[in-house]
Structures are given as structure tokens and as C-alpha cells.
Design brief:
Elements (H helix, E strand, L loop, with lengths): L3 H22 L5 H15 L2 H15 L6 H9 L1 H6 L1 H29 L6
Helix pairs in contact: 1-2, 1-3
Length: about 120
């Protein structure tokens, strides 16, 4: 419990700094993405921080499914929209999922080449 509050403070502080930078500078990048970049920079410059935040981050990831409860409630609350526009939503979800998968694969391949990973 002693390390949980500082870890949460670090995570939320990085997100806050990212939001402030994105909105203050008018950047087209979401604040949480900038916060993640800041977190990566902190972890690269201060490797001991990774060991300190590992336990708290493990608890957060283990309970990540709880974050989807509000989304599920929102879906149930808008069933009339789903009934009216189900086909358009199905197409949009399918296309966006495929695009996200392609982006993830492209990023993985690019990073693998950048760091000199094993040839495929």
C-alpha cells in the first residue's frame, strides 16, 4: 500500500502533464499519449522507477476488466441506437478493428527493425 499512492500519483501526474501539454500547445495528439511518452522517458532515465511501480501496475492490469463496465452500461442504455443503426455500426467496428490491427502489426514490425530484432 505504501508504494501504491506514489505510483498512482506518477501515473496520473504523467497523464495530467500530457493533457496540459496537448491542450496548452494545441497539439493534435491526445494528452494521454503524451503522458505515456513522458512515462516512457521517466522509465528510461530512471530504471529504478520500473521496479517500484511494477506491483501497483500489476494490480491495475489484473483488474482492467472493471474499466469496461461503464462502457457496457452505456451500450445497454443506448439499445435504441443499436437497433436503428446496427449495420452501420457493424461495418464501422469491423473496419476500425482491422485498421487498428494493421497499425499494431506495422508498428511492431517497424520497432523490431529499429531495434534490430531477429529476421523474419
Amino acid at each position: 500500500m505504501k508504494t501504491m499512492l506514489p505510483t498512482l500519483g506518477l501515473l496520473l501526474g504523467c497523464q495530467l502533464c500530457g493533457e496540459v501539454a496537448a491542450r496548452g500547445l494545441g497539439l493534435p495528439i491526445p494528452g494521454p499519449v503524451l503522458g505515456l511518452v513522458l512515462m516512457i522517458a521517466i522509465l528510461r532515465t530512471w530504471p529504478a522507477a520500473a521496479a517500484q511501480i511494477r506491483a501497483t501496475v500489476g494490480v491495475i492490469l489484473a483488474n482492467l476488466s472493471l474499466m469496461f463496465v461503464p462502457a457496457g452500461v452505456g451500450v445497454i442504455g443506448n439499445l435504441d441506437v443499436l437497433a436503428d443503426d446496427w449495420f452501420a455500426l457493424l461495418v464501422i467496428l469491423t473496419v476500425s478493428t482491422l485498421l487498428a490491427m494493421c497499425a499494431a502489426v506495422t508498428t511492431f514490425i517497424g520497432v523490431s527493425k529499429l531495434i534490430g530484432g531477429p529476421p523474419e
